[in-house]
Write a structure and sequence with these properties.
The protein has one helix and seven strands; from the N terminus they run βββββββα. The chain is mainly beta and 120 residues long.
C-alpha cells in the first residue's frame, strides 16, 4: 500500500464531502459511504486507489463519471478515499459533546412573532 493510502479518510457509514476531484462538478458533493470498493485503477494515477462505494446524500445531487459516451451522472458509484473528507465524527467519539448542537441549530431558526402595541 502506498504511503498516501496508509490512513483512510472515511469508513462505512460516514457522511463525507468530495474534494480535489478531477471533474469540477463533483466538488463539494455530500455522500454517504456504503461499502468498501477495494483498490481500483483510477484515471490519472499509476497505482490503484482505495475506493468506497458511495451514494449522494443530497436531494437532486449527482456524481459525474467519464464514460465511453462522455460524462454521465449517477446517484451512486465508486469514489477514491483521497477524494473524500469525513463529515461525521469517527466511531467511538464522545457524541455527548454534540448532543445539543442540532437542537441549537433548529432553535436558532425559530422566530417568535411579537405584536407591537404601537402602529408603525
Amino acid at each position: 500500500m502506498s504511503e498516501h493510502n496508509s490512513k483512510l479518510n472515511c469508513a462505512v457509514g460516514d457522511l463525507a464531502i468530495t474534494v480535489n476531484c478531477k471533474i469540477p462538478e463533483n466538488l463539494g458533493n455530500i455522500v454517504r459511504v456504503i461499502s468498501s470498493g477495494g483498490f481500483q485503477e483510477w484515471q490519472g494515477y499509476s497505482e490503484p486507489l482505495y475506493t468506497w462505494n458511495v451514494e449522494v446524500a443530497t436531494e437532486g445531487g449527482a456524481l459525474f463519471y467519464e464514460c465511453e459516451n462522455g460524462i454521465e451522472a449517477f446517484t451512486s458509484g465508486p469514489a477514491p478515499d483521497i477524494y473524500l473528507r469525513r463529515l461525521t465524527p469517527p466511531q467511538g467519539y464522545l457524541m455527548e459533546e454534540f448532543a445539543d448542537s442540532e437542537q441549537l441549530q433548529m432553535n436558532f431558526h425559530e422566530v417568535d412573532i411579537v405584536e407591537s402595541e404601537t402602529n408603525v
